[in-house]
Specification:
The chain is α/β, with parallel strands linked by helices and 322 residues long. It contains twelve helices and ten strands.
Length: 322
């Protein structure tokens, strides 16, 4: 049995898909248990590599009562806390980045300036295991009655610095609705008030607000069958990448070189921080209170132009496929 730690969020799990698939390919007959928040189980099912989710909220005590796993894999962080958390399960072997504080000399050296997808693939490569960074596609969720062909706007983020101004989201929504897009707004229950305000300012009816009304399966289905996704650097953007749905992603404190969609996929457009900009360590740049200055500098017309580019890429790829 293989125990994997990735006790984070939607985008974090989506970026670990190639590594999880690599482990499944290397050990097809082993049970693969993912230590992650219980609410992520529906998304874990769509990865196609995970057998079971062990409910785990962040770093702390691992609720492990079974015999020691054959192998534990740290896809969570650089350690030492995450290393020690897995070591408490007494695995026969630990695959993780080298960390002297955790007493783990094995494994590759951590690189701060690395894309999150490639980081975990490189970890496996360091142990001679396969992992293809391009293998990001998610399984399609079951039909759940979510709207199809919608343009999804996701104005919220858990990190205030990653939120593009609400009034600009409203302006984009108003412009796209005028072009004939079926606009809907997504978000968590905590972000419903924000989504309500954006919809109201855009002159769109309350029923366009799906924030707080969709579970993870419904959200995945919505994105999988969407016309377009516009969001900040959040989990929804990673779902769009996983389903090949055209997207415009607005980056603030963290550069796309670390968390963005693959640069060779033109239907995914990125705006904001230059692709190779260095990461802002506190992820704020604005005292953790408001929008990051680089994100705040993105004008509405630039987002609308990126929408045109993303949709043009979809039409071109469709013509080539035909």
């Amino acid at each position: 049995m293989i125990l994997v730690l990735r006790a984070l969020g939607v985008g974090d799990l989506a970026t670990a898909v190639p590594a999880l698939r690599g482990l499944r390919s290397a050990f097809p007959d082993r049970e693969l248990v993912l230590a992650a928040p219980a609410w992520l189980a529906p998304l874990a099912d769509l990865v196609g590599a995970v057998d079971r989710v062990l409910p785990t909220d962040g770093l702390g005590r691992l609720a492990w009562s079974r015999p020691p796993p054959e192998m534990a894999v740290n896809l969570h962080g650089r350690g030492p806390q995450s290393h020690r958390m897995l070591a408490a399960a007494r695995p026969h072997r630990l695959l993780a980045f080298a960390n002297a504080a955790a007493g783990h000399a094995d494994g590759p050296v951590w690189d701060d300036d690395e894309h999150e997808v490639r980081r975990w693939c490189r970890l496996l490569h360091g142990y001679d295991l396969p992992a293809d960074p391009a293998d990001l596609a998610l399984r399609r969720p079951p039909a759940v009655g979510a709207p199809t062909g919608a343009t999804v706007l996701h104005p919220g983020s858990k990190i205030p610095a990653k939120r593009w101004p609400a009034e600009r989201f409203a302006a984009v929504a108003r412009a796209l609705a005028g072009r004939g897009h079926r606009v809907v707004f997504t978000g968590s229950e905590e972000e419903q008030e924000l989504a309500d305000r954006v919809a109201r300012d855009a002159g769109l009816p309350p029923e366009t607000v799906l924030a707080g009304r969709t579970g993870l399966t419904e959200l995945a289905a919505l994105v999988a069958d969407a016309r377009l996704v516009i969001s900040g650097d959040t989990g929804v953007a990673h779902l769009a990448t996983g389903y090949g749905t055209a997207s415009v992603v607005l980056f603030g404190p963290v550069p796309p070189a670390h968390w963005g969609p693959p640069p060779d996929r033109p239907r995914h457009r990125v705006l904001g921080v230059p692709h190779r900009a260095r990461i802002d360590r506190d992820r704020s740049g604005s005292g953790g209170v408001g929008t990051h200055p680089t994100l705040a500098a993105i004008p509405v017309d630039e987002v609308l132009a990126a929408v045109d580019e993303a949709e043009r890429a979809v039409r071109v790829s469709g013509a080539i496929a035909a």
